[in-house]
Amino acid sequence: MLSRGGSHFLSGHSGCMLLFFLGIGSLIFLHAEAATKKYQFDVQVSNVSRLCHAKPIVTVNGQFPGPTIYAREGDRVIINVSNHAQYNMSIHWHGLKQYANVWADGPAYITQCPIKTGSSYVYDFNVTGQRGTLWWHAHILWLRATVYGAIVILPQQGTPFPFPKPDSEQVLVFGEWWHGDVEDIVKQGNAMGLPPNMSDAHTINGKPGPLFPCSEKHTFAMEVEQGKKYLLRIVNAALNDELFFAVAGHNMTVVEIDAVYTKPFTTSAILIAPGQTTNVLVHANRTPGRYFMAVRPFQDVPIPVDNKTATAIFQYKGIPNTVLPSLPQLPSPNDTAFALTYNKKLRSLNTPNFPANVPLKVDRNIFITIGLGKSVCPTCINGTRLSASLNNITFVMPQTGLLQAHYQNMKGVFTSDFPDRPPKAFNYTGAPLTANLFTSHGTRLSKIAFNSTVELVIQDTNLLSVESHPFHLHGYNFFVVGTGIGNFDPAKDPAKYNLVDPPERNTIGVPTGGWSAIRFRADNPGVWFFHCHLELHTGWGLKTAFVVEDGPGKDQAVRPPPKDLPLC
């Protein structure tokens, strides 16, 4: 049967407390139902009120955030998406590798054309070799401002977590909220050549918390019991902000990032970039009371952000709501030292059961520079429009799906000449550069041989301004083998790489005025999007795609497209 708002073996909005903790009977039932999970996603407009303002927003099944998808490692998941909203729609299953199944990845005009109003499309995929917390979101326009939700992948039956078993768990999804219609706000900004207005609040599970007006009913609370351990599955679904998160009076033990287990470490706060997920254990071992969980942006350059704090409540059982919660000590909004130190603590578990298969030999070296700039716009306020580029190329979105063009050998949709290096070397992170280097516009992709190993160095630059950039690679996990501040030095920096237990992720936060080096094996054929996960920068052109060629094996080539694939 199809399920709305939760799998047919789980109940309740957000699926907070999992049935697999409830005993042998439940385990037997789950095992019998663990082959195929079916969901119905009705994309529809719903009226929602926050911060004393009501407005219509695009939702899935009328829920904000949308329903959590539950599956087990090895399951098949079938999701029928019916679009009843006025916008075209596509949905991306962020972090799912979609091995040999690129048609189901979801980004509009990359792997599919969008689902038109009044139409439906079935996403059909297997969850192979992955377990943990991921998420899904709209991948067209800025619709992921309200169209998003978590994905919880449980381990295979009989496979324990490689950390102490929690007594219960909770999904926490961070987001942003605008008073006005987000698409209208974006259009206004684009027309003026300026960034759109920043959000009016951050949210935790769709709610901003009691530090905002009219939020008595819009505060998320989770009840805990003294002495028990809780697994928090945390998703940053914010469009444009890296976020600090902490629980007042309680430390957290980080055990997973981007659905990959880590070496556990204890911290008073975490940093999580847009697109990333983090699982932490929290022990309810403090004096029973009410404690705020809080999120606030990290921004270490003078760029305007929504710096207000969203809160939820970590509430011990039996404590009345009249008790005032205490706030956590979050890092300062510009605490670069905390951010760098925190990220250095992230390391893969690297055990026999969960190895870190880091490519030691590299077949292809790619060096990509991030550039912000201005392009001529006679109708804009200052006669210019903000833009962005990778290796001096501002990506132009096609009107035909890139995967369809690749599969059918269509001409004139894209070229495969994205350069492995920028056209001109310069002091990337030196004094601010206000003049644009030569920048071109085009739909230029990078072709990669099947099963080759790739090292990709992503270099921030001071074109207009340095800034942290979270980059997401579709279809793959990668190993973050190195990171640093300043200009990458190919003669010296590789000697400092961690090739033993580097963190494995699908989204990497390139540090402000610095670089990150990632490695992966190109064993998943298809066209895979690579882009900054700040929606602002993606819209400005900070994106490209990799065409991974077919391999020789039966399951090493792009399959024929589904019969109901949306056409442009």
Automatic annotation (TrEMBL):
Organism this protein belongs to: Artemisia annua
Essential cofactor(s): Cu cation
Gene Ontology, cellular component aspect: apoplast
Protein role: Lignin degradation and detoxification of lignin-derived products.
EC number: 1.10.3.2
Superkingdom as given in the UniProt entry: Eukaryota
InterPro entries noted in UniProt: Cu-oxidase-like_N, Cu-oxidase_2nd, Cu-oxidase_C, Cu-oxidase_fam, Cu_oxidase_CS, Cu_oxidase_Cu_BS, Cupredoxin, CuRO_1_LCC
Subcellular location as annotated: Secreted, Extracellular space, Apoplast
Catalytic activity: 4 hydroquinone + O2 = 4 benzosemiquinone + 2 H2O
Plastocyanin-like domain boundaries: 43-157, 170-318, 418-550
Keyword Transmembrane set for record: no
Family statement drawn from the similarity comment of this UniProt entry: Belongs to the multicopper oxidase family.
A GO molecular function held by the record: copper ion binding
Keyword vocabulary terms for this entry: Apoplast, Copper, Glycoprotein, Lignin degradation, Metal-binding, Oxidoreductase, Repeat, Secreted, Signal
UniProt GO BP: lignin catabolic process
CDD domains: CuRO_1_LCC_plant, CuRO_2_LCC_plant, CuRO_3_LCC_plant
Chief location: secreted
Protein name, as recorded: Laccase
The record's free-text note on cofactor binding: Binds 4 Cu cations per monomer.
Enzyme class, first EC level, given as a word: oxidoreductase
Pfam families according to UniProt: Cu-oxidase, Cu-oxidase_2, Cu-oxidase_3
Signal peptide: 1-34
UniProt KW Oxidoreductase keyword: yes
